[in-house]
Amino acid sequence: MSERVVLAYSGGLDTSVAIPYLAEQTGGEVIAVAVDVGQGGEDLDTIRKRALACGAAEAVVVDAKEEFAADFCVPAMQANALYMDRYPLVSALSRPLIVKHLVSAAKEFGGTTVSHGCTGKGNDQVRFEAGLSALDPELKVIAPARDFAWTRDKAIAFAEDKGLPIDVSAKSPYSIDQNLWGRAVETGFLEDIWNGPIEDVYDYTADPAEPREADEVVITFAAGVPVALDGRPLTPYQVIAELNRRAGAQGVGRIDMVEDRLVGIKSREVYEAPAAIALMAAHMELENVTVERDLARFKRSVDQRWGELVYDGLWFSPLKDSLDAFIADAQKHVSGEVRMTLHGGRAVVTGRRSDASLYSYDLATYDTGDAFDQSLAKGFVELWSLPSKIAAKRDRDLES
């Protein structure tokens, strides 16, 4: 049997052209794998037929929206994962899922090589190849844009020469990657970091400055998993999809930032993540109610490291596996309801309740009936301050 190359296929110009190009370069057959992670656009059957029309020996299409929501977006929400305290890991979350299905297809069809469309300048090449190394270290990798200096101009000329059944005329002024968790936009005039984004950059969110009625939503969580909106039981995918619509209609989730890429450069990125930002705000508030103080303090450092590992392409790493276990254990009491107001580009928590709440009205109130014994506080403060007091006295004695 000839060599088989498994290609991460999107259905667009670059990966469609890659099918015959890779066949020529390797002398083998190309297996196209398209994974639906909620990016929208064409239906899977149309994409599959295009891959075959462009010369793929086999075309695999996977509806992975529910899997992506439950196994990738929910863990990111439970980790409150915001890279550089702002970016909700939109692209970084989808790559390990795609890798998982590429490896599965390689095993099914006898593939020896995997190909992706990433350049040598971005993070995604690392995410794909680090994931492939972890799941099947025997697989070889070809990245035409990086390894063969394959440019868009060359792709268009190749498509025209081969008479491929794809549109080569339309080109967005931006580079866009989107999925259920959000949308990432870069390049074009955004590369000048003084230029402000204009409205045509956005698609998932409406202009937050436009006047409109506020939207109030109640999100129900069970052990850290969103399970209902306004009392209606939903799957994580359905929760995220609905919140993308509702929070997006209020302009929630717009992010404009200069980001530290893994490859060492800074990059200007514009993100839209309405559901991600709303869900994380609600989840963090429910953790405030249900997670004990020292556990919560330590978890914040774990959350940051978890986000960095995923951003850096180490989804399948031993450290992340161990952090996953810690985070999962920390979620066992994160159950209850959070009420939020979505309006003017913000998702604001206005109420929270939980059967597992650590909040005690009797201890917190300043009114009659206060159960907190304030007489105990004086001795506590004196003992708590004692090390600082001793050190301060020592310093004064040494200076005199």
Gross morphology: elongated
Which parts are unreliable, with pLDDT below 50 for 5 consecutive residues or more? Answer: none
Order of helices and strands: EHEHEHHEHEHHEEEEEHEEHHHEEHH
Number of strands: 14
Strand order of the largest sheet: 3-2-1-4-5
Q: What's the mean pLDDT score?
A: 94
- As a percent range, the share of strand residues is 15-25%
Number of helices: 13
Task: Return Rg in Å.
Answer: 25 Å
* Helix percentage range: 40-55%
Give the structural class: alpha/beta
The multimeric state of the shown protein is single chain
Largest sheet: 5 strands, parallel
CA distance, first residue to last residue: 87 Å
Short précis:
With 400 residues, this protein is an alpha/beta fold.
